[in-house]
Amino acid sequence: MNTAAKQLVAVVLLLGFWEAAVRLTGTAAHHYPVPSGIALNMVRGFSSGDYAAALAFSLARITAGFAIAAAAGIALGLLLASSRSARELLAPAALGVQSLPSICWLPLAVLWFGLSERAVLFVVVMGSLFSVALGVRDGLAQVPPIFRRVGQTFGLTHRQLIVRILLPAAFPGILTGLKQGFSFGWRSLMAGELVYGSTGLGRSLLIGRQLSDVNQVCTVMVLILAIGVAVDRVGFGIIEKRVLARRGLA
Amino acid sequence: MKLSLEGVSKHFGPHAGLSGVDLEIRRGEFLSLVGPSGCGKTTLLHLVAGFEKPDAGRVRMDGRDVTGPGRDRLVIFQEPALLPWLSVEDNAGFGLPTKPRALREETIHLLLRLVHLEKFADLMPHQLSGGMKQRVALARALAVDPDVLLMDEPFAALDPRTREELHHELQRLWMGLHKTVLFVTHSVEEAVRLSDRVAVMAAGPGRIRRVIDVDLPHPRDFDSPEVADLRRQIREDR
């Protein structure tokens, strides 16, 4: 039996044990979720269109937020990598701000933008931006100096050097930063939606609690986890593998 | 004169660098710089390349001061420094304009044939041996048709057999293309095989001790007694 098959068997056994334990001990079903309840809730939620709508809202927000964070993060990372004074002035601040849980920006964002989409977007951007910037900075710092020399001897302008040599050379590091940035952005979005709560998966989680529906709470948790893992492993994972294989690094 | 250095000094601390170097390199000439490490051979090459500026003196090409790097003086480094995200073909064509495409592809094809790598156009750099990588680097430099090739110990990291192979290759290319070559090496053998003249340098501070003519016709038989003789002369002199 190969590893995947073994893992599958282990998961099925675990779920079966979980289901049996809750049912046989007669534990209060509305406090403890069971796998069959989660599966049923998943089917119901998707056939009513509720989960698809919630997913669509959350994915639209993370797409917009992450796009802004990626663009701003790459620009900030380039600035940090190219200017010594920017590095000395901004890098400690960037590192410091990064250690603040991004949901802490929400009250400020609400004061600035009102309780609105923009406030949630701001939280996502603040959660994601600095990981991207630091990834870009580190990626650029690791570019072998000889590549700059190659660019120079071929008479590249500063701009061409960045586009044709530095960014592609730093791409694996940039990708790592983007991946981490997405992951932080997604967490920030869920926190934002839990607090702001008008639509999205975070809102569905909140409704589950209000209805005391443990199965709904767990189903939405599974969905949130699934999106996070899918983007990280499948989306970024595949690109990363290809990039590294092409360069003979994997 | 293609290249000239007049009273060139460049200091890195009290003992390193160059002091008052005069050197002239003729158009189409192959000139090697040999000497112990720390004698400033690479510094001299970097000054001509425009990577560094002299503290005193002038570096000129075709009578004009060298003010920075440029594609009329292509540098070939000890490491091939191929870009790992580009195929052999795209590395060779790095300095070429992207359009018109047909011309670009034709030029790349021609160059890869010149260095005997036409069958490897689609491979990635990490799939090549050290000698093949250096051939791609050579093709990449020749693609922009520079007047001058500045070669900084380009074969030092290769095994002896590959090195000898590339000596023949470079000699053949140089005879056909009439480039001016400034070649830095710590191997007297290599210098005598390839050069019209060999500038022997000394360290502390870096300077040129003397310039020796290698008055042998190309293509050379590397194992001939004349080559061996000159090699011994230069070695004993040091």
Question: Would you give an account of this structure?
Answer:
The complex is a heterodimer of chains A (250) and B (238). Chain A is mostly helical and 250 residues long. Helix content of chain A is 83%, strand content 0%. In chain A, α2 (35-47) packs across α10, α6 runs antiparallel to α8 and α8 (158-196) packs parallel to α9. With 238 residues, chain B is of the alpha/beta class. The interface between A and B is medium-sized, with 18 and 22 residues.
Overall helicity of chain B: 25-40%
Number of helices of chain A: 10
Instruction: Round the mean pLDDT of chain B to the nearest integer and report it.
Output: 92
| Global geometry of chain B | globular
Features:
heterodimer; A: 250 residues; mainly alpha; 10 helices; 83% helix; 0% strand; B: 238 residues; alpha/beta; 6-stranded mixed sheet; 4-stranded antiparallel sheet; 34% helix
List the helices and strands and how they pair.
The complex is a heterodimer of chains A (250) and B (238).
Chain A: H1 3-24, H2 35-47, H3 50-82, H4 84-98, H5 106-113, H6 117-141, H7 145-153, H8 158-196, H9 201-210, H10 214-246
Chain B: E1 3-12, E2 16-25, E3 30-34, H1 41-49, E4 56-61, E5 64-65, E6 73-76, H2 88-92, H3 101-114, H4 130-143, E7 148-152, H5 160-177, E8 180-184, H6 188-194, E9 197-202, E10 207-213, H7 225-237
Parallel strand pairs in B: 3-8, 3-9, 6-7, 7-8
Antiparallel strand pairs in B: 1-2, 1-4, 4-5, 9-10
Short description:
The complex is a heterodimer of chains A (250) and B (238). By secondary structure, chain A is mainly α. Chain A has ten helices and no strands.
